[in-house]
Every structure is written in structure tokens, then in C-alpha cells.
Amino acid sequence: MVHPIPEGARIRYRDILTFPQSVTGERIELYEGEFVMVPAPGFWHQNTVANLFFHISRYVREHNLGKIIPAPCDVYFDEYTVLEPDLLFISKERLHIAGPRLVRGSPDWVAEVLSQTTEERDRGFKLRWYALQGVREYWIVDPDRRVVEVYIKKGQVYQLLGEFSGEEMIRSEAFTKLELKVDQLWE
After folding, report:
1. Confidence of residue 23 (pLDDT cuts 50, 70, 90)
2. How far is CA 41 from CA 48, 72, 76, 156, 163, in A?
3. What CATH number is associated with residue 72?
């Protein structure tokens, strides 16, 4: 695919907005100026995202906590770093960060469902970046291992709150009364 990016160039968000439609139809993320096109997720990845969205959004609505949004939704951290988490939550007190086109700033909670093409970034760059930028809680959902890892922000890094599987209820500081068994994500 041909795109208007000079080799080695540091890309900004406003540059992406000028790309031809054939490029912008892809899922795009910026990692400190590095442009990454993410292939469309597979069926089981999306099934997991849909199940997680169903359970979390029902909980968020029942408790009037804010908004839960699935990808694609740009989360603009700065001109050079714009990510698209699989799911994000913004508390009602912070909904001002949600604009018509993007979220400007850190969501309260983010979940990434692993796939072969995203696992390295989800466990590497995103794990570090989300903590540095103030995302209070980060879930890494692994459909292959059927495990949910819950990380909570402690200072500038994440601490593992727990790794949950099978019939275990997921513990969360963002959703303290949530009753969700890990196996419900694979239905």
C-alpha cells in the first residue's frame, strides 16, 4: 500500500487526517510519532470484545458511572501518540474529555484483547504508556490462555491486581461491584 509518509518521518495526528480514504479506512495508531496500521481483528477477538462490552456496559449503565466505548475511537494523548484501545471507560465526572471525533486525554479504564499482531504493543508500549498517562486501570484479556490480567496504577507504573481465569470473578478497582466470571467472556 502506498501512503504519503516519508521514510523515518515522525508522524503527527493531523498528518493522519490528511491520508487518502484507502489508508484511513484502516485502524491506525501513533506510537510517539511511529505510524502503525493494525489489521482488522479476527472473529474470536471481536467475540471477546463484544462479550466484555456487553457485561461492562450493562454494569456502567446500571450504576450510572459514565460511558464505555468500543474501538475504533481515537484516544489523543498528544500530537504524536494516539491509540485505539479495544474498550475504554470514562467516568461521568470526566466526560468532558470526550469530543465529537476523539477522546482527548486518559480514559479511567482501558481493556486490550490480545491478538498475534497486537500482543507485543499491548504488553509493552501500551502497558507503560497508559500508566504514565494516568489510566487508573488496565485489563489485558488473553483469549488464547482464557485469562484476564488486571493492572492498577501505582505511581507511574502498573501493579498486577490479579490474573483471573475460569469461574473466577474478576476483581476491579474501577468497577468494585462488578460480578463477571472470566468464562463469560468466551461465550
Report:
1. low
2. 11, 11, 21, 30, 24
3. 3.90.1570.10
